[in-house]
Amino acid sequence: xxxxxxxxxxxxxxxNSYAQxxxxxxxxxxxxxxxxxxxxxxxxxxxxxxxxxxxxVEALKWYRKAAEQGSEIAQFNMxxxxxxxxxxLTPNSEEAVVWYIKSAKQGFAGAQYQLSRCYMFGxxxxxxxxxAVRWCRKAAEQDFMAAQKMLGD
Length: 153
Prior knowledge:
mainly alpha, single chain, 9 helices, elongated
């Protein structure tokens, strides 16, 4: 848990210091010029309404750009958007799983845990207890608390 907290805290500090050092307009310009970090941050701003009017369609657009460049957190966000039908998408568990797998294979614990739940419940994939446990263990090994609880660690 300590490791996950430190990673999340570091990411938060980096992203926030990046964002605070530049007004949204500059972040948007960086995102338009291909910066993956800026694309993810712009997406999260649109999703949360932080510094800009909340707009899930715009959030989806920027998450997709970052995800297509390999950002594991943006890939996870894409999975969530598909899973819950955000940003004008129709809920689509199968497509959500595609994005969770991309993120999980890069080691993103949140995606590994979410993927384990998909396998556990047969949500977007065929039910597989073995795959559910495999992905849940990967998340638990990164001190992802929900995964640890699910495994009884």
